[in-house]
Design goal:
This protein has about 375 residues and is of the alpha/beta class. Helices cover about 40% and strands about 20% of the residues. Strand 7, helix 10 and strand 8 form a beta-alpha-beta unit. The longest helix is centred in the N-terminal third of the chain and has 26 residues. The radius of gyration is 22 Å and the shape is globular.
């Protein structure tokens, strides 16, 4: 099953079901034809889309997601807004205050509009996040170097919207960075998702080099294959596609960028049930102990589990997508994904070590982004 279903989606889904029962009951018991009509339409959409989504994803398609993602979108748009009704609705029922019920319904309607906005606009609203980091041990040659981080493209979710993705790539090229770093999940499952996209992603321009790693979805673990050979060939094809668009895959490998500066890339390492193919200690043995080290590791949980036991200076991750749903405004930073990943978006520091978690370039499952927009990260490294 997809990443979103492996995150705190299941508890949230249970909450949605319970809230839906309460929400529908309140609509159906109002003495109003309008409320009855709204309740019937909303419940029909929710149950119908839920059935279609479960039926579709049980087949685990390799590279055709449109029907499943559409059903997922309708389910979220019709079901999640009921959460806005929950607290004022409960208080309103307990206190027999109809005004609180009306406030709850108004909040539900606003949440419904926000979700529609996330589907129609939010998923294409790429934001450039700029950060500057200072290190005492950064080689003088790398002082002022600039890096673009992309993560979680999930190209199979874009459904051939070349023009929209092309505008994001124009933003990337306009940053005129030195290096491109991609931190995993180029596809949802199958290397064939990249067919037709090669020219566009080959057009990403940086002054020097482009590097990439694999994410959990790149291994094809979430779909059925005829045999192990077919699955293995799919992975090999994907690695060749990385190379074809000018990206150098780092599979538990290292690259010397300059004297005293090494780039490390490990395969996916995450807490179970995610695969643990990353070999951090083996990779570290390939570089000098006192070198500046920049690590690419897809899953941010790797940082707390293993990376902080090393002297790696900067780690770049992705994976969480910020759950594609949350709030990042007015100093508030909230998303349900924080219950599973304490470090889920942005910059974190432990001692002298830094972790940056990219919010993702694409989307998965739910065809939208509400409050947590797709990200292009621009990093400047400075010598302290």
């Amino acid at each position: 099953m997809f990443l979103l279903l492996r995150m705190p989606f299941l508890p949230l889904f249970s909450l949605i079901i319970g809230t839906q029962i309460f929400f529908s009951y309140q609509l159906f018991t109002q003495d109003s034809t309008l409320f009855l009509s709204i309740g019937a339409a909303q419940l029909s959409l929710f149950l119908g889309s839920l059935y279609l989504m479960i039926r579709y994803f049980r087949t685990r398609p390799k590279d055709d997601y449109k029907a499943g993602f559409t059903a997922f979108g309708v389910m979220i748009a019709s079901g999640v807004p009921a959460l806005g009704f929950l607290i004022p609705g409960i208080i309103g029922v307990l206190t027999d205050n109809f005004l609180l019920l009306e406030i709850g319904w108004a909040l539900s309607f606003l949440l419904f509009l926000a979700i529609l906005f996330g589907i129609g606009f939010g998923r294409w609203n790429w934001k450039v996040h700029r950060i500057e980091l200072q290190f005492e041990n950064l080689p003088l040659e790398m002082d002022g170097s600039t890096w673009i981080q992309l993560s979680d493209i999930h190209v199979g979710s874009f459904f051939r919207n070349y023009d929209k993705v092309g505008k994001a790539i124009e933003k990337i090229n306009g940053l005129n960075a030195d290096y491109l770093l991609f931190t995993g999940d180029l596809v949802n499952n199958s290397s064939s998702e990249m067919d037709g996209w090669e020219a566009l992603f080959s057009g990403i321009k940086v002054k020097k080099q482009k590097f990439s790693i694999l994410g959990n979805h790149d291994y094809g673990d979430y779909v059925k294959w005829e045999n192990d050979s077919e699955k293995s060939e799919n992975l090999h094809n994907l690695i060749r596609k990385h190379q074809a668009i000018g990206w150098q895959p780092l599979l538990n490998q290292t690259v010397k960028i300059s004297d005293g500066f090494w780039l490390l890339g490990v395969e996916n390492w995450g807490k179970p049930p995610f695969r643990q193919s990353g070999k951090l200690q083996e990779t570290l043995r390939q570089v000098p102990h006192d070198a500046f080290k920049l690590l690419l590791s897809h899953d941010p949980s790797h940082f707390d589990e293993q990376v902080i036991k090393t002297n790696i200076d900067l780690t770049l991750s992705g994976h969480t997508h910020g759950m594609q749903f949350g709030i990042e405004r007015f100093g508030i930073k909230l998303s349900p994904v924080a219950f599973k990943y304490p470090k889920w978006a942005g910059l974190y520091q432990v001692g002298k070590q830094y972790l940056y978690v990219n919010r993702g370039f694409g989307y998965l499952g739910f065809p939208g982004r509400v409050g947590i927009y797709p990200e292009i990260t621009h990093i400047t490294l400075k010598r302290k």
